[in-house]
Amino acid sequence: QLRLVESGGGSVQPGGSLRLSCTASGFSLDDYAIGWFRSTPEKQRDWVVCIYSDGRIEGYQPSVKGRFTVSRDNAKNTVYLDMHNLQPEDTALYLCAEGETTCRGGFGSWGQGTQVTVSS
Questions:
Q1: What b/e sequence results for 100-110 when a residue is b if at least 16 CB atoms lie within 10 Å of its CB, and e otherwise?
Q2: CB of 107 within 8 A of CB of 98?
Q3: Do residues 4 and 110 touch, judged by C-beta distance below 8 A?
Q4: Could you write out the DSSP letters of every residue in 16-41?
């Protein structure tokens, strides 16, 4: 069974940084594209960015471009999202999901999410 687990969320002040992790169990991430999304009460599963198995990156959301960086370590079966200069509008539940081999199709298995709260 494909399972993804997010971690690394927390509460930070504006301007702070966090590193989120998305770790797979029950399967190898090697061949999978992994997307990061974020959900708020106003907007569910809003696209943040996606990374292909070979490290190519698909489409940072404009509001995070230049502040967030996605990467992967297939040996650790983990995809990361490094977030810098966090702002209150980045407050959300951050989720990862597998897109099989593409970032441009549907996403199948989803994690439960990790909460990020940015406030002073």
A1: eeebeeebebb
A2: yes
A3: yes
A4: --EEEEEEEESS-GGG--EEEEEE-S
Instruction: Give 105-112 contacts, CB < 8 A, sequence gap 24+.
Output: 107/35, 108/2, 109/2, 109/3, 109/4, 110/4, 111/3, 111/4, 111/5, 111/6, 111/22, 112/5, 112/6
Residue type, 16: G
Residue whose C-alpha is closest to residue 71's, from 56, 85, 86, 87: 56
Dihedral over Cα of 40, 41, 47, 52: its sign: positive
Three-state SS at 80 = strand
For the chain, residues with pLDDT lower than 70 are none
What is the spatial distance between Cα 12 and Cα 18, in angstroms, rounded to a whole number? Answer: 8
**CA 74 → CA 10, 24, 114, distances in Å?**
25, 10, 21
